[in-house]
Amino acid sequence: MSGTHKLVFIGEPGAGKTTCIGALSDIETVRTDVGCTDGLADRKETTTVALDYGELDLGGAGRLLLYGLPGQSRFRFMFDVVRDGLLGVVVLVDAASGDALRGLNETLDTYADELRQLPCVLCLNKHPDPPLELRRACQDAMRAHELVAPLLAVDARRREDCVRIFELLFTLLQHGGYPYPEVDIACP
Amino acid sequence: MAAMFQPNRIFQVACHQFAPAEIEALRSLLKLLHDYLKRPWQVVDEPAHADVVLVNLDHPDPQPLDAAAVQIGCAQKPRLKRSDCIHRPLRAAEVLAVLSEAAMAGDDGSPAPRAETQEGTNAFRYRLRAWPLEFLHWPRESWPVLAAMTRCHASIKEISLRTGQSQADIERTLAMLKKMHLLDCLVERRALPRVDLHAMGGWRGLANRVGQLLGFAQ
After folding, report:
1. Contact state of B150 with A149 under an 8 Å Cβ cutoff
2. Under 8 Å between Cβ of A17 and A52
3. Residue A123: per-residue pLDDT
4. Within an 8 Å CB–CB cutoff, is residue A168 touching chain B?
């Protein structure tokens, strides 16, 4: 089996998309970061204004393209750009943010229809041990959007945590009854 | 909820968001079906205590139901709803079928595997309401079972085909999920398991390759 597959990381600014892709990509990641000029400047120096891109070379099994997309509804059109050949979606939440649920809810409001059709993993990033209240609230938010997905705490800087995300995604793909694509997608 | 075999146990059925007249109609149906049902049944008000809950899918303001019981969707036009749905107003033959199946499962404390092996009979099908928050502490072997019930409902036979795990192992995971009220259970009349072996093989090959590269076993 060979081909080109895609994986998308979605989340609010500062959720850890760029870091996650950087931890996994075989190539130097393509970034579209610019300096923050709004309230986000309090939390990080730069932010991604378009998308992040990285690749994982699967040898004879092709390539896995890694995309980081903003979770806000105004960037919804970018999902359609990467939809073909999409294996799954990783939703990242900045668990250290005081308003983590707001970002998650906006992402789910925007993408719930797509997420229900794809293997999806929800990751609470930037907090070593997210409080149970937050994890329950995230689970409730998923249930309110009829989304069933594993929820786990990660440190996106740690490769082993990123590997666990992959392990869960491929567990879902392998056993979840998802259709297998018949044709390869066009490579960028 | 399933329980160990108790020969004198009276099974309980509840109605969720049904009109009082429909609940009375069910009581009358149970009297009519008394001689045909192998085990006694009674209508109760509280879904949390029921073995089976009939859910009105036509209700204009559907409320979530947090019960571990087998849930049977009921609708005026079942074909427009989910595939396991039965008719509302309730029909005697359909009520007899779902209650008989539920009693068979409840007698031995497990879902009814015998029904799954017979073409055209009912099969219990399960889907997760949510992944357990502590799933990372569950046995790693349970993850594929959770995955098999994430996207859509699946019978034990389908889960077994998808995961390669034994029925006993799967039932252990189901029991844990039932205790946590994280399992949605339906009865569906269907003949054969829906498992796409071609897709499974494709994903397995890709998963193995990625697992080799990143260092996880699939």
Report:
1. yes
2. yes
3. 96
4. yes
